[in-house]
Amino acid sequence: MFLRRSLSLFLIGIGIGSPWLVRDWLASRAREETAASGMVEPTWTDRLKEKFRFLDGAEEPIQVAQVEPEPAPVRADRAPYPLASTTKRIVEGFLGGSGEIEGGGLKGWLSNGAVPPSTARSEAIVEATLSHLSAEMEAMGLKAGDPVFLRAFKEEGELEVWMKPAVEPHFVLFKVHRLAGSSGNPGPKLREGDGQAPEGFYGATASSMRPETRHYLGIDIGYPNEYDRQRGRTGSDLLIHAGAVGGGAYAISPEAMNEVYALVDAAFRGGQRDLGIHLFPFRMTDARMDRVWAKPSRWTGEWVNLKEGYDFFENVRLPPRVGVDGELYDFTIAPGEN
């Protein structure tokens, strides 16, 4: 218990605990009332001391001095997570610019020689597509075989392709493709045949590639994951694929699927072991979550948990290591990335 608390204090103290980011968002809703009451908003260190005041023998909570309230201008361009933004710069400083991340992390994704399945047709598509993309990738310091990470957003109808250049310690956005369709409404998939596309944190391996499907090309997203299985959610063979939308799928145009498939295939052949696929009901910005908070649904609690993973990547530009802790997703920086 002592070790766990000490580790928690350390992680929160340096600002890399993703749940802290969501608590910052929740706390920001009360800032206007705090200013109106004449109280100075406590710093994060004050809040930390308040939370753990009984650990060092303090018996009274920290009191915040009262001052005359001063109206603060609202800036649309303010950084929503200044602590996390500082953390991102610190992490980048530790990682350096070589792009070589020791232990875990990206090197932890390296495979033991697993090769994605292919056919003569898929090989021809991959070769032609990578040749077509080569100039565009080169202009961004990217190349075929660099690690890939995918995010999709139902409400906005977008699939993002992120890649990690060899000269950068973090991922950069390479392409955004329009979704031809994503099944269902905001909310997770619950059972086979319900017409809903999954939401959550998934992953693919080389064996998840589908060079021959009725959908032209596809990548199995790995549904259900451990989080889904704990809740008895069912479904199978759910893909990112080309063509018309199918039950539970994320569909894009054949041209876009050529690019996504080719880049993921090259990444696996270049040594990437796991492809992160993060699926969201919408872009989980503060403003969009305020709307959820104002009109809660049955999925509000689950979406707040998804926002933790969304914020992690938004602020650090490295996919988190995702686990399940009790009934919630848990996010940590992979060993070697801090």
**So what's the overall shape?**
globular
Q: Which fold name corresponds to the CATH topology of the largest domain?
A: L,D-transpeptidase catalytic domain-like
Strands ordered across the widest β-sheet: 4-9-1-2-3-8-7-6-5
CATH class of the largest domain: Mainly Beta
Query: Radius of gyration in whole Å, from Cα?
Result: 22 Å
The biggest sheet amounts to: 9 strands, mixed
Uncertain runs with pLDDT below 50, 5 residues or more? 47-112
- Write down the overall mean pLDDT: 77
Please tell me the total number of domains.
2
Separate helix tally: 10
Q: What's the quaternary structure here?
A: single chain
Please tally the β strands and state the result: 11
- CATH level-two architecture of the largest domain: Beta Barrel
Helix-strand string: HHHHHHEEEEEEHEEHEHHEE
Instruction: Find the CATH superfamily of the largest domain.
Output: L,D-transpeptidase catalytic domain-like
What does this structure look like?
Helix content is 35%, strand content 17%. It has two domains: 2-95, no CATH class; 110-283, Beta Barrel (L,D-transpeptidase catalytic domain-like), CATH 2.40.440.10. Helix 2 (18-28) crosses helix 10 and helix 6 crosses helix 8 (254-269). It is built from ten helices and eleven strands. The strands form two sheets. Strands 4-9-1-2-3-8-7-6-5 form a nine-stranded mixed β-sheet, sandwiched between helices. Strands 10-11 form a two-stranded antiparallel ribbon. The model is unreliable at 47-112 (pLDDT under 50).
